Amino acid sequence: MSVAYVILAHRSPSQLARLLHRLHHPDDHAFVHIDRRVALEPFREALAPLLATGNVHFARRRLRTPWGGFGFCAAVLATLEQALQGAIFTHVSLLSGQDYPLVPASALRDFFEAAGERSFLSYSSGDGKRPPARAGNLAWYWNGDLRRVTYRHYRVRGHFLHIPNRYMPGLPRLAPPAEMKLYQGSAWWTLSRAAAHYTVETFVRRRTLRRYFRRVMVPDEFLFQMVLCNSDFMPTIVNDDLHFIHWDGWHPKLLERADLSAIAQSFKLFARKLDEERDHALLDELDSLADARAADPGAFVDELRRHYLDR
Q1: Do the beta carbons of residue 7 and residue 30 sit within 8 Å?
Q2: pLDDT tens, position by position, 9-34
Q3: If both were cysteines, with which of 39, 55, 123, 206 could 225 make a disulfide (CB 3.0 to 4.6 Å apart)?
Q4: Is the separation of the CB atoms in 138 and 131 below 8 Å?
Q5: Is 128 left (phi over 0), alpha (psi -120 to 50) or beta?
Q6: Nearest-5° Cα angle at 50, 46 to 56
Q7: Which tens digits make up the pLDDT trace of 31-75?
Q8: Cα-atom radius of gyration of the chain, to the nearest Å?
Q9: What 3-state class would DSSP assign to 134?
């Protein structure tokens, strides 16, 4: 078996290289998308030893990926399609260049092998019970507010303009796909190969779906959820994104060493969001955590299985 990683990055080539070293296994592949707004050469230099292995690949299509726009989704879909064409794998994980693994690569592989056809995707239909806060290990909650999916959103000089608004109140709203129930969740996921292929094929086939999500605000928190949760794959989805994230409003806060205890107790496979320039020692601590788990990977994978697969 093998695992693939689709990684989107726009900064810190050295941190990206460190992430890829920790994920590296000779049977696995990583497909790396570098935001078109930044120079590629520093990343090429930092990743040169990994690129030479033949297991790390740059995305053929480089797109602009500003926060909240469809460019992020377009980059993910294009890079995911490249991964499906270029590698054989059982599961594919979407990561940011500022994510980091909390388990050794061998344990990741063993866990995904045990997962079978399951995918890991956080989702909420907007009608669930509100948790106390949107924090690291609580289920994703969406309050059902429809403005992000029924107003047309345009980016103008770095700001979002939504239509209708008080100046243009009579313009028609955006109509969600009639046959799809609305779902929202985290942008980060791990999918089975079949679920990933289905999502890509759905967007290749349905132009109306692409046109719809181009006008949704922060579509990466709706797109995969709506496609997969309205499909035959729904029974195979575990409602979890496998990431430890400490939310600060709409955005994840940068993790610090003070978060280490909560991270270690979380049963998550990845942590988000880290900055080696701000807290380099935290990455060292996470390496030590993963290495300690590598001493008895079977026991830790059994714990993961009980937590995620035996529910």
Answers
A1: yes
A2: 999 999 999 999 999 999 999 999 99
A3: 123
A4: yes
A5: beta
A6: 110
A7: 999 999 999 999 999 999 999 999 999 999 999 999 889 999 999
A8: 19
A9: coil
